[in-house]
Specification:
- With about 280 residues, the protein is an alpha/beta fold.
- It has 7 helices and 18 strands.
Length: about 280
């Protein structure tokens, strides 16, 4: 399946005119079977960036949400206003309350579910892997087996019963797998469950397919030396040909990745694209 991925929202901008950056992530996916949207950014740039990149948000067949943080779901109302009724695939825990740090800054979804549904969101929740379109699979919950990929202690979740979880396990961290003409493309939102855990799970589910590319937020900006080294090993072991780092990878880790694999690395900033 021919596939093109274009970054609509990200911390930095690679296009020279018209685009704006924001702390967040969203990408537009074009396939032989239609267009799709993975995440929606914070809400500052998705409409403008889609217009300047000539990506029609009204054309999408479905929306996939990686997890319930404001910088990945904040642009959902703007997209729904343009698209209307549309399936929105996500984990059932995306609407739990979330906070960061001692100041208890709210970092969850800043909208009520009923408000989003009134704009046309047809939520379809699953904890398991689900095919959201021909050759497109949302992973569901990622099994966590590594000891070095740990949660951010500053993140706190509050369950419906009022229980506080520290750190927030972010069970709703999902990634998208696309069966492209060149192999699997794995799109990460923030990789809160760990990039190694995610890639191992993808290979378990698709053992006969090569992983051609990984694009999105790797969360390695918060990683220690062991996690970074083990992630590099997995990238090499799976012979991943393209790595597009975004968002929570951070400038320092992105620079190290580029230095380590300049022929395979690209900055997945606003306007960047990958065809396969």
């Amino acid at each position: 399946m021919k596939t093109k991925i274009t970054i609509l929202c990200e911390n930095s901008v690679g296009m020279p005119f018209g685009g704006i950056g924001e702390h967040g992530f969203a990408c537009f996916i074009e396939t032989d079977h239609g267009n799709y949207l993975f995440d929606t950014g914070q809400g500052q740039g998705i409409t403008q960036n889609a217009m300047f990149l000539k990506k029609n948000l009204a054309s999408i067949k479905s929306i996939m949400i990686s997890h319930g943080h404001y910088d990945h779901v904040g642009g959902l109302p703007q997209v729904l206003v343009q698209r209307g009724q549309v399936p929105v695939y996500a984990h059932p825990e995306i609407f739990i309350e979330r906070f960061w740090g001692e100041a208890r800054r709210a970092i969850g979804i800043p909208f009520r579910r009923s408000f989003l549904e009134s704009l046309g969101a047809d939520f379809r929740f699953s904890r398991e892997m689900v095919e959201v379109g021909p050759g497109l699979f949302l992973t569901g919950e990622i099994p966590r087996h590594t000891t070095y990929e740990v949660g951010d202690p500053n993140m706190v979740a509050v369950t419906e019963s009022g229980q506080e979880l520290k750190p927030d396990p972010i069970n709703d961290d999902l990634s998208l797998v696309i069966k492209s003409a060149k192999g699997l493309i794995v799109i990460l939102g923030c990789a809160h469950s760990g990039m190694v855990n995610i890639l191992d799970y993808v290979k378990e589910k698709f053992p006969s397919d090569n992983i051609y590319a990984v694009v999105g937020g790797t969360h390695m900006g918060f990683s220690g030396d062991e996690q970074f080294a083990e992630t590099l090993k997995v990238i090499d072991n799976y012979e991943i040909e393209k790595l597009g780092a975004s968002h929570c990878t951070g400038l320092e880790k992105s620079a190290l990745l580029y230095a380590r694999m300049p022929e395979r690395f690209f900055f997945a900033c606003v306007g960047a694209s990958l065809e396969a």
